[in-house]
UniProtKB/TrEMBL annotation:
<dbReference type="InterPro" id="IPR001726">
    <property type="entry name" value="TdT/Mu"/>
</dbReference>
<dbReference type="Pfam" id="PF14791">
    <property type="entry name" value="DNA_pol_B_thumb"/>
</dbReference>
<comment type="function">
    <text>Gap-filling polymerase involved in repair of DNA double-strand breaks by non-homologous end joining (NHEJ).</text>
</comment>
<dbReference type="InterPro" id="IPR001357">
    <property type="entry name" value="BRCT_dom"/>
</dbReference>
<dbReference type="Pfam" id="PF14792">
    <property type="entry name" value="DNA_pol_B_palm"/>
</dbReference>
<protein>
    <recommendedName>
        <fullName>DNA-directed DNA/RNA polymerase mu</fullName>
        <ecNumber>2.7.7.7</ecNumber>
    </recommendedName>
</protein>
<dbReference type="InterPro" id="IPR029398">
    <property type="entry name" value="PolB_thumb"/>
</dbReference>
<dbReference type="InterPro" id="IPR036420">
    <property type="entry name" value="BRCT_dom_sf"/>
</dbReference>
<dbReference type="InterPro" id="IPR037160">
    <property type="entry name" value="DNA_Pol_thumb_sf"/>
</dbReference>
<feature type="binding site">
    <location>
        <position position="331"/>
    </location>
    <ligand>
        <name>Mg(2+)</name>
    </ligand>
</feature>
<dbReference type="InterPro" id="IPR018944">
    <property type="entry name" value="DNA_pol_lambd_fingers_domain"/>
</dbReference>
<keyword id="KW-0539">Nucleus</keyword>
<keyword id="KW-0460">Magnesium</keyword>
<dbReference type="InterPro" id="IPR027421">
    <property type="entry name" value="DNA_pol_lamdba_lyase_dom_sf"/>
</dbReference>
<dbReference type="GO" id="GO:0006303">
    <property type="term" value="P:double-strand break repair via nonhomologous end joining"/>
</dbReference>
<dbReference type="InterPro" id="IPR022312">
    <property type="entry name" value="DNA_pol_X"/>
</dbReference>
<dbReference type="InterPro" id="IPR043519">
    <property type="entry name" value="NT_sf"/>
</dbReference>
Length: 454
């Protein structure tokens, strides 16, 4: 959110420089082009960001619609919606041309107003009933049979990137919408060749459909390509990939002029212990973890847990339990058959691990990976979760994932069954009793995995 003292409405007078802040004044390069970004369905924060971007490129961008506007930029709006909105503003008496956001992003990339093509115009979706191929997909992701074979990776990767960008911009609602759309495409039994095939499918909003159509018709989405090239997005990606760094911290660093790891290292920023470890082992933690590595780490974790609590049970959870062959970390759920024996276990396990020569991984196994450099080890992120045996089933379900699946499962339980599901219990909302849940302790540490002799 821009501080109130810096938020100003841009004047629509003739002397407008195309900037909303004194320090950002850029002369108008295209006086014949006056843009207005329609906030409806675009969102206020995204509209503000795009408006500032347009002004920095030398475009006139109006905050308030007027007769001066020549181009109305829309996102996720159909032509009927735009006509209705224009009529509410000026009774429909305007020569302003409604254009899809793709024209804006292409113009920003070109540094000038690009030629308006048919695909840039806001139009109603035309559907040929004869071409419709029906897919049947349940509304809730938790009710779908989704294999590990994705038949539409280009489409799902594009939607996932937009979801990530939305989440990094603190627009979680948009992020969830894109991820739900991607999940629907992952569940389809064959590749999508036309937008008409998607008619009637759940969770596919107008914005997602427009991205899909752009890719199917043009080979790529202009919005996705624009996002990929965004310096802000690239900086957020690099900085939030540091373990312990969230979007808000990364945004603050970017405002301070930090866009890379080198700049962060040279900046003198104060980092907490997790961030220091994340920066030190950045390259290691960016590498995918294989199932063989996860199994090797499991041996180390099991030795540690059993050493301090004989009889404890250790279960591999997360993506590997779902059948994935690689992941970005390794997760374990720990419990004991006797209720209460798990109390106080976590600090003991961590102390045991820290006592093993800084987790140097002196044990070598046939499953540990070969090291291609001078070192015979690398850092891997490991998450440990401890649960009492009475809550083990719910913890196992909750920590197996994926994040979207768990969100959808809890949404289904609430909407369809009037029940509340968590990683601790299942509660019938129609009952009067209130359950008090215990908090599952969670600790994160790094295991240095030993490799074979080079």
């Amino acid at each position: 959110m821009v501080p109130l003292k810096r938020r100003k409405v841009v004047s629509s007078g003739a002397g407008d420089t195309g900037s909303d802040r004194p320090g950002d004044k850029v002369p108008t390069r295209f006086p014949q082009v006056v843009l207005f970004l329609l906030e409806r369905k675009m969102g206020a924060s995204r509209r503000a960001f795009l408006s500032q971007l347009g002004r920095k490129k030398g475009f006139q961008v109006e905050e308030v619609f007027s007769e001066r506007v020549t181009h109305v930029i829309c996102e996720n709006n159909c032509s009927d919606e735009v006509r209705t909105w224009l009529h509410s503003q000026v009774g429909g008496r305007t020569s302003a041309q409604p254009l899809d956001i793709s024209w804006f992003t292409e113009s920003m990339r070109a540094g000038r107003p690009v030629e308006i093509l048919d695909r840039h115009k806001v139009q109603e979706q035309q559907i040929d009933e004869a071409e419709v191929v029906a897919f049947s997909v349940p509304s809730y992701a938790c009710l779908r049979r989704t294999t590990l074979d994705n038949h539409n990776p280009v489409l799902t990767d594009a939607l996932s990137l937009l979801a990530e960008n939305a989440e990094l911009s603190d627009e979680d609602g948009r992020g969830v919408a894109f991820r739900r759309a991607a999940a629907v495409l992952k569940a389809l039994p064959e590749p999508v060749t036309g937008v008409t095939q998607l008619r009637g499918l759940p969770c596919l909003g107008g914005h997602s459909l427009r991205v899909i159509r752009d890719i199917l018709e043009n080979g790529a989405s202009s919005e996705v390509e624009f996002t990929k090239q965004s310096e802000r997005f690239k900086a957020l990606k690099v900085l939030t990939d540091i373990f312990g760094v969230g979007a808000k911290t990364a945004e603050r660093w970017i405002r301070d002029g930090i866009h890379s790891l080198h700049q962060l290292q040279e900046s003198g920023q104060t980092l907490n212990r997790a961030q220091q470890a994340g920066l030190e082992h950045y390259d290691d933690l960016k590498q995918p973890v294989t199932k063989a590595e996860a199994d090797a780490i499991g041996e180390i974790v099991e030795e540690a847990v059993v050493s301090v609590l004989p009889g404890a049970q250790i279960t591999l959870i997360g993506g590997f339990r779902r059948g994935k062959l690689t992941g970005h970390d390794v997760d374990f759920l720990i419990t004991h058959p006797e209720e209460g024996r798990e109390v106080g276990l976590m600090p003991k396990v961590v102390s045991w691990l820290e006592s093993q020569v800084k987790l140097s991984g002196t044990k070598q196994t046939e499953n540990t990976p070969e090291d291609t450099g001078h070192r015979r080890w690398r850092a891997v992120r490991v998450d440990l979760v401890v649960s009492p045996i009475s809550q083990f089933a719910f913890a196992l379900l909750g920590w197996t994932g994926s994040k979207l699946f768990e969100r959808e499962l809890r949404r289904w339980a609430g909407h369809e069954k009037a029940m509340s599901l968590s990683s601790h219990a299942l509660y019938d909302n129609k009952q009067v009793n209130t359950l008090h849940y215990a908090v599952l302790p969670k600790r994160v540490f790094f295991v240095i995995v030993a490799g074979k002799n080079p």
